[in-house]
Amino acid sequence: MTISWKDVEAAQPAHAAIVRERFDAHKHHVLGTLRADGSPRLTVLEADFSRGELWLGMMPNSRKALDLRRDPRFTLHANPGDGSEMEGGGGDVRISGRAIEVTDEAELARFAAAAPEGAVPDVFHLFRADVTEVVRVYLSIPDICTDVWRPGGRLRTLRRGNGDEPPREDPPREG
């Protein structure tokens, strides 16, 4: 089963809204892919949230596109900005999943037509995200908190302090 961004919004609207706000705050983000030898590759990417999907567009034959064709697993980390957003400002967010390449000419044309004039090159790779995890890390003094959502599960909040005690999990909560 493929999980689109609209599925994330339906399952966890508040979590999805915070994550989307962090991505919308900056144009460029960091995409993690896997090289042929299994080592990580980090590159800059402009992510596009439109028509209920998370889209990843790339130049033809870019290393990141070739990585995703070979192994579709990715992590997209939102630009953290100047770092002042960790407490009360949304925190640090990332989306992981599998990239599904779009090869249908009509779908590529619809994507290009919806973009601002000149924003999409004539030839490009386009991938639709199949979301497998959405994570937010933020400060809630005295703890660092990690909200984790995976398809079919509930939103989990793990809290960790500055000591050597193990992380604690908050009781389950809605949306």
Overview of this structure, please?
By secondary structure, the protein is α+β, with helices and mostly antiparallel strands. The protein has a single domain, classed as Pnp Oxidase, Chain A, CATH 2.30.110.10. The protein contains four helices and ten strands. Helix 1 crosses helix 2. The model has no long low-confidence stretch (mean pLDDT 90). Keywords: Oxidoreductase. GO terms for molecular function: coenzyme F420 binding; oxidoreductase activity, acting on the CH-CH group of donors. One of its GO terms (cellular component) is cytosol.
Shape: globular
**CATH homologous superfamily heading:** Electron Transport, Fmn-binding Protein, Chain A
- The SSE string, one letter per element, is HHEEEEHEEHEEEE
Our Rg estimate from Cα atoms comes to 17 Å
Number of helices: 4
Gap between N and C termini:
21 Å
* CATH class value: Mainly Beta
Flag low-confidence runs.
Answer: none
Q: How many strands in all?
A: 10
Q: Remind me, CATH topology?
A: Pnp Oxidase, Chain A
Average pLDDT: 90
Largest sheet: 10 strands, antiparallel
| Assigned CATH architecture | Roll
